[in-house]
Structures are given as C-alpha cells and as structure tokens.
Design a protein that fits this description.
This protein is mainly alpha-helical and 155 residues long. Helices cover 60% and strands 9% of the residues. The protein is globular, with a radius of gyration of 17 Å.
C-alpha cells in the first residue's frame, strides 16, 4: 500500500483461488452491493462461515466432486487473490486434512454455500471490512452515507 494506491492493509497473506466465470460473476454481483473491490471481504466471510459451521463438509465435498468430475485448473479460468489471516488458514488446513481436501476446494464449497444462502451477509461483510483500524472512521462514514441513500431510494 502506498500513497498513490490507498487502500486497506491486508489482513493476511494472499491465497490464490480459482473459480469458473459464472461463480466469479456471481461473487462480483454479490460484492458490488457493499462497494467497489469487496470480493475479498465476501470470500473471507464465506471462509469464516465454513469453519464456524463445519458439519456436513465431507458430504458436501463428495457431492461437489461427484457433480464435477473435471476439477483441473483449466476449468477454473478466473484467479482471485484473497488475503486470509494465519488462524483462518490453519483452520482451513485442519479441516482439509480431516476431510481430504485442500484450501481451494474448501473455499469453492464456502463460496457455493454463501451464494446459495447469503443470510446476514451485509453485517458480516461490514465487520470484515471494518477489522482494520486504519480506515475504520472513513469506512463507517461511507457506510452511513450508503445506508441513508438506500433509505431515501426506498421512500
């Protein structure tokens, strides 16, 4: 991060994930409601939800594998780098070792879950965005403006 490129301090090291075009498009649409460049926050929320509710991961992975026999990188054309903190990475690795999957496969499952059931996504994404103290005040002001704009549009 530099003065020319202002932004958030990454919350961890970048992890490269690959998705198909349709999933990426769905992620972009979902993240756009929270502002520009929020796909990473949505992905972190998806990962945190997966590790918070690990029940059924093995069965869901088996079903995902059954439906998609070709899991080669050529199928997943779009690469997204997402910053994940070490604790989250360690938990993903532990779950992955238990169910015989890698981080990328777990993240695809996490994304599938959050796309099919977004739940209280706005609140979770906002918490994820506001984790950094550096821009917290500015982000909270912007969030308040967006909320006000939404309220006036509904009237």
């Amino acid at each position: 991060m530099t003065e020319e490129k202002p932004g958030r301090i990454p919350v961890g090291r970048p992890v490269g994930l690959r998705f198909d075009h349709e999933t990426k498009r769905s992620l972009d649409l979902m993240a756009a409601q929270f502002g520009r460049r929020r796909v990473g926050a949505v992905l972190r929320v998806a990962a945190r939800r997966l590790v918070a509710q690990p029940e059924g991961i093995g069965n869901a992975l088996a079903e995902q594998r059954r439906l998609s026999r070709d899991r080669t990188p050529a199928v997943y054309h779009v690469r997204i780098n997402v910053h994940l903190d070490e604790d989250l990475l360690d938990t993903l690795d532990t779950i992955g070792a238990r169910v015989g999957a890698d981080r990328v496969e777990l993240m695809r499952l996490a994304v599938k879950r959050v796309l099919s059931d977004p739940g209280m996504l706005e609140e979770a994404v906002n918490r994820e965005i506001f984790r950094s103290e550096k821009n917290k005040t500015q982000l909270l002001r912007r969030h308040a403006r967006l909320q006000e704009r939404r309220r006036t549009q509904l009237d």
